[in-house]
Structure formats: structure tokens, C-alpha cells
Amino acid sequence: MTLMDIPQHQLTMTVLMTPDTANFSGNVHGGAILKLLDEVAYACASRYAARYVVTMSVDQVIFRQPIHVGELVTFLASVNHTGTSSMEIGIRVVAENIRTQEKRHVNSCYFTMVAVDENRKPTPVPIFGPQNDEEKRRHSAAEIRKNARIRANNQLNAQKALTIN
Length: 165
Hints:
alpha+beta, Thiol Ester Dehydrase, Chain A, 5-stranded antiparallel sheet, 2 helices, 33% strand, globular
């Protein structure tokens, strides 16, 4: 597969973890990974929508294992679901030991990105239609996460209304 063959709804980025990303225990600082995750989500969403985008929310950032300085870290991003102006971007993070070539799934998360126009107002994005079984599974899971966020938000708003009265 060449760069020309990568679907518009997917993006891959690999970064070498250098000493400037280390925390006090010598592993890569979680904040450094969060910054890269946001950049990858931005690149994937803006490429798909052909628009600038902003980060609306981040869900389920799960640091499964530490990432070590000197490892190659690959971010595998894809558009999982679209709304009117929003997109869920799923990102899987894989760390690779350069010498042993051992690969580890170290992080997964979901970003909701919103496309914006020249006036920084939400603007429509192309509808994402899953094409294969894996994309259909991701799309369905994204709908479940979206509905869970809506339910949680409604419950919080109801609770706030009760405390105000």
C-alpha cells in the first residue's frame, strides 16, 4: 500500500520517543502522548472533512502499558462515525522496540472532532459509510459511545436542575 492508497478516513503516524518526552521515571510522559493523540485526531478529521477542526471531547484514554524512550510509537487513526459536523476518531497506539521489533498495544482512545468554517462555526462533514466488517463494528461501537454520552449528559443536567430548585 502506498500513500496514495490510504483511505481518506484513515491516518497513520509514527514518532520516535526521544529523551525530551520522558517523565521522572524515565518513561514517556502521558501528557506528551495526549498532545500527539490530539494532533493525530486533528490530522485524521481535517483530512476527512477537508476543513479545519476543533477538539470537542476525548473519551476513554486508556494507558495500558508504559511507553519507553527510544521506542517507535505508531498512531493508527480512523473516522469511526460522523454526525452533522462532528466525527469520532478512534486511535490505537502501538509501541515498538526498535532492537527486538516487539510491538505492544499501549493506548486506545476516542476523540470527537468538529469541523468549522472560516467563521469558526460548525459546518457539515461528509457522511461516513462503513465498508467492511471492522468499520461496521467500529461504527456500531461509536454509536453506543455517543448514546452513552448523551444519556450521561442528560442525567447530569437533570441532577443540576434538581439542585438549582
